[in-house]
Amino acid sequence: MSDQISNTTVAQGAMQMFLEEYCAAGIQALLFDTDDEVMSLHIDMHELLEFNHELAMLLLESPSKFLPLFNIACLAAQRSLKQQTTVSDSICTVKEDAQVRVTHLPNHPTLQRTRIPGSEDVGRLLSISGTVIRTGLVKMMETHRVYSCTKCRGVFSVNAEVEQYNYIPKPVRCLVPGPDFCNSTAFVPADSAEDSQRCVDYQEIKIQEQVGRLTLGTIPRAIVVVLERDLVDKAKSGDSVTVTGVVTCRWRPVVA
């Protein structure tokens, strides 16, 4: 399996095996939470390294590709565990929007930082320690927009681009998957009963390097951190925090 772990299907299967073996208690907490207070599943990077070293390294090197696969694996693990229970659906529900969050990165200077990362770190999964110096308002972010093609009648979605301040670009052609290629450029926003699932809470905070860890005369730098879903309102100004996430550069979209 390790020789083909970079394959998306194989990697997703390995992720589900890991979650069912190491995170069964967390999956049960997701299933039996009736107040939607538990919407994330924390995985320990040390346990993932123990389970499959190659999978862990792929996650560290390409988090933007493999973190979404972990979310899909989490959904599959919930459904698998639910099939093994005999309780009613009102008590045990699958959380479709549950997010997998990585904790406890290895204690290595390339992964755990006290200095703000630079452009060479864009796209990497890091842990950064700092002090919260500003917290923004909790806002609503549209995660994706659903379109319906007027030619093939198919439905497809376009995700918001975090790099462009959550801007959702208008598609230039039909993106419906399938063997029949549709090159239509005529589509309209689709009506869906799941409008509420297109939006999530988000908040921007700014953290600054801790002065006590800097050499004398060094000016502390700061970086903006985007919190989503159940992470909003978890920090306030003055808190010392350690944030694990993907380093991203942002720019304003060019709107004609």
Question: What Rg, in angstroms, do the CA atoms define?
Answer: 20 Å
Global outline: globular
The parts where pLDDT drops under 50 for at least 5 residues are none
CA(first)-CA(last) distance = 48 Å
Fraction of residues in H or I helices: 10-25%
**Which structural class do the helices and strands define?**
alpha+beta
Strand content: 25-35%
Largest sheet: 6 strands, mixed
Instruction: Please tally the β strands and state the result.
Output: 11
What is the residue-mean pLDDT, rounded to a whole number?
A: 86
Element pattern in H and E:
HHEHHHEEEEEEEEEE
- Count helical runs: 5
Structure report:
The protein has 5 helices and 11 strands. With 256 residues, it is an alpha+beta fold. A hairpin with a 5-residue loop joins β6 and β7. The model has no long low-confidence stretch (mean pLDDT 86).
Task: Give a quick precis of the structure.
By secondary structure, the protein is α+β, with helices and mostly antiparallel strands. It has helices at residues 8-22, 24-32, 45-51, 53-61, 63-83; strands spanning 40-44, 99-103, 112-113, 125-135, 139-142, 144-149, 155-159, 187-189, 199-208, 222-228, 240-246.
Structural features:
globular; 256 residues; three-stranded antiparallel beta sheet; alpha+beta
Topology:
Blueprint: H1 8-22, H2 24-32, E1 40-44, H3 45-51, H4 53-61, H5 63-83, E2 99-103, E3 112-113, E4 125-135, E5 139-142, E6 144-149, E7 155-159, E8 187-189, E9 199-208, E10 222-228, E11 240-246
Parallel strand pairs: 1-2, 3-4
Antiparallel strand pairs: 4-9, 4-11, 5-9, 6-7, 6-8, 9-10
Helix pairs in contact: 1-5, 2-5, 3-4, 4-5
